[in-house]
Design goal:
7 strands; 7-stranded mixed β-sheet; 18% strand; 208 residues; FMN_Rdtase-like_dom; alpha/beta; 33% helix; Flavoprotein-like_sf
């Protein structure tokens, strides 16, 4: 009996910071808890931590735009990265903000590939030390990935460290906001961006 192709969609939540003491895992926990409330059974979620990949600065000979298929990369880490990213239909990028823009490790990992990202669904979540209205890294990264015709949710949720109790946050696994209303607004924004992504995912063909 023939087995039909799976219609399950895979979404990777990518932690874009690799530094010691980062808030990325705490942001990932908040995001995961929020979207689990509206995670259709047709969608699987996987967390990818760039700190576990240990990418060198991009220096490969191939131009990613010209490479079709993971087996055509010469670097082992790029072949592995290509296979990983090719298997996902959408992405939630956690975009840490350093010096008014996105973090270098995130851009570096993104630059290793091209066709594996192109045209897929994406949610951007921007976080950093500046006040919410001054965070720009998410919009800057949006400019980058939109060039690859990625379908990016129109709302970019922003999380400001200035709204948190840093001592309590650093002591545990959760982001500890001074005001519960701020956390609720962040979660509402994440849910809105995710809902838009879900609609995109469920109408697109599954990745191989």
């Amino acid at each position: 009996m023939a087995v039909g192709k799976s219609t399950t969609k895979s979404v990777a939540l990518i932690l874009g910071s690799v530094r010691a003491g980062r808030n990325g895992p705490r942001v990932a926990k908040l995001v995961t808890e929020t979207i689990q409330k509206n995670l259709p059974e047709e969608i699987e979620l996987k967390v990818i931590d760039l700190a576990e990949w240990n990418f060198p600065i991009f220096d490969q000979a191939e131009i990613p735009f010209t490479v079709k298929g993971w087996e055509n990369y010469t670097s082992e880490i790029t072949r592995n990265w290509s296979r990983e990213i090719s298997g996902h239909d959408g992405f939630i990028f956690l975009v840490p903000e350093y010096n008014s823009s996105y973090a270098g490790p995130l851009k570096n990992a993104f630059d290793y590939l091209y066709n594996e990202w192109a045209g897929k669904t994406a949610v951007l979540i921007n976080y950093g030390a500046r006040p919410v209205n001054a965070l720009r890294g998410g919009s800057h990264f949006n400019d980058v990935i939109s060039d690859l015709q990625m379908k990016v949710s129109s709302l970019i949720p922003k999380i400001s460290v200035s709204t948190m109790d840093r001592e309590k946050t650093a002591a545990g696994d959760d982001l500890v906001f001074y005001e519960e209303s701020v956390k609720q607004q962040v979660q509402a924004d994440i849910a809105t961006a995710w809902d838009e992504a879900v609609k995109s995912l469920l109408t697109a063909p599954a990745s191989a």
